[in-house]
Amino acid sequence: MKIGFSVRKGCSRCASIVQRIVEILPDDWDLYYDRETARFLDLKGTDIDRMKVDMVIAVGGDGTVLRAIQRANTPVLGINMGGLGFLSEVEIGDVERSMYRIMRNDYRIESTMKLKVLINGVETMECTNEAVIHTSKIAKIRKFKLYIGDNFFDTTTADGLIIATPIGSTSYSYSAGGPIIYPTLDAAVISYIAPFRSRIRPVVFPSDKEIFVRFGGKDQSCVVILDGQTQYNVDERDEISIRVSENKARFVTFRESFYDRIREKLIKNVVY
Prior knowledge:
The protein is an alpha+beta fold. 19% of the residues lie in helices and 37% in strands. It has a six-stranded antiparallel beta sheet with strand order 6-5-16-13-8-9, with no helix packed on it. A six-stranded antiparallel beta sheet has the order 12-11-10-7-14-15. It has a four-stranded parallel beta sheet with strand order 2-1-3-4, sandwiched between helices.
């Protein structure tokens, strides 16, 4: 078995978790460390996108998991050292038990949709959670012209738009009032950030439709932010298109269903 490790930048506690895991795993397994992990453990590091491994273990928060998904073409197991950690499968108290399950091959791989984002027809980075188009100036709303496939849908004035995958529907889109979409559904959701017209609501659309976003008026400077990680500057001269990627995000999971994750991460702390 070949295992890669990735940790949150600057997190020495995350690196100490990696050290605990290394002590548990069989001696004959091949282990690889990204440069941040290697720096803390005084080992040789490898760029995560160059790792030829069976699994990457990402220790940190959801951002660490997303970074590993973006760069590694392999299933990712997230260990939560952050807050909610919706994309992280393992909490800190379950590390040892989870590693023994990995050693017994007692896990499954869950594949979810990724989005491909193009600016003026040029591909940018793929995203697992969402593509956000947001005004670049605080308190300056923008006019967005939205097309679904070949059909004009609406012109909306708002702070921004969120185009989210099913797994991303539990993140920023959910905070903006969007619905939760089961991860195996071939659909995505468009949610609005502080729309000027209160009647506008999130829209679920089929995955075979490409989304086009254009701008109305002058001085429409915005930023396109992918998975909260990478940012591009755009304005009224640009067109953003979002389509479903042929690639998949793959997560290592021990749960039997997505409903378990919803219950544990989003519902369990609700006080009635």
